[in-house]
Amino acid sequence: MLPVERIIGEEGLEATERGARLAMRLPWYRSLPFSVVQVASVKLDGADIDLSDAVVEFDDQSFPLAEIGEQTNAFWFVRDSAFLVLPNVAVKADDSHEVSLVINISPPYIPGMTRVNPMTATLTVA
Amino acid sequence: MTTVTGPQVGVTLYAFTNEWLTRQFDLDGLLGEVAKRGLGPNIEIIGFQSFKEFPDVSDDFASYFKDLIAKHGLNAVSCAINSDRFMKPGQQPIDDADLVEYHKRQIRSAKKMGFKLTRSQFALPAHLLSELAPFCEDIEMPMGVEVHAPMWAGHPAVLEYREVYEKLNSPALGWIPDFGGTARAIPPSLLDAARAIGTPEALIDATKDIWQGPEASYVKAGKLRAIAQDKGYELAHVQACTLAFFILSNNDPQSWAEMVDRTIHIHGKFYGVSNEGVEEAIPYEDILPIFRDGGFTGTIVSEWEGHAYCAVDAFEQVRRHQAMCRRILAGEPVVAA
After folding, report:
1. pTM for this one?
2. I need a labelling partner for B225 at 20 to 30 A (CA). Which of B27, B182, B209, B321 fits?
């Protein structure tokens, strides 16, 4: 990863009616189609989160994480956060949690390359 | 009377990747900073880095962008487009027709925003050039493929493109050299960044040895990985060193002479220019006269890539690089500090 790259977004972790909502940044120098992004794992306080019902939100778009591989014409603008909504994870405002996120990317002009990007941070729920 | 002008300098906003990713500037602010510091007027922008609407830019955004360029007194020369052929990892590449259309979408957007040319990539197979050449000619948007390390004038992919270029002989197709393919050494600043995270000197020595070889980048990476496994080196240290295999190679700088006639634009790749005005890894003194004397009159955009491993002031690096290019193009020697 570049020295300034991060995959847990500046907006952090938020409690919403839809579940916990985690900000994610794209670990590359340019925007990429969501189809080459894989959210490999999320841990909350050391425990693996089941991602089978997770939803990705970006601006006014949203789609199930399970269908991210089909999103060849939806581009994640590199300067913006996308958000991972976890319907079965309840968090409370002002609580702190250690969040570990792993995002894999496969740049679509470099065949065979996949980069694994891990990041852990302690976040206070907004 | 004909006015003969030599190569121009400029900058790609890619040099400011750190400042962009950390949201220190929005597009208006970054263009303004470039103008204020006198690093323009000629600029290159990677469509997929700076334009949220890419690859299909609306009329409204194009109009807004042209107003920004005018406001800051800049000249939008080159828009870097991407040859994204592998949209689904591990599956077949997209259809040829879709890939051609994907290029056209980006080229149309670049044209609409006022750019003069586009940069493409070798992920676009050479046999599709015949479909894009008439389109580029019709809308008067030359497209140049970036010759980036490990490629160089004698690389098989370049030779395949050259054959098609000669057959089509289209004024809309050309080369965009990136000088990283003809480096004299791994940038000391890259190795220092590896040392700063604790990389053992023996691993750095192995990296330098392997880098000198003629193998493909991934073969070099595999060699270093094998050594690392044998010796038990940490993954982070190996990754810090492996970067060098993918961004730089040590082909002969004189080989650029074979590409000057079809060069439409240049990526002035660099990693660190000293106080004395000398780039640490790429022999600009050898390279720039080839293009100047060969009649190249396009733009050399300063492309600082030290952001891949360090976070020093990119604006200062670009200022030094442009001063160095102007000095060399004027035929002046290095001035001792």
Report:
1. 0.95
2. B182
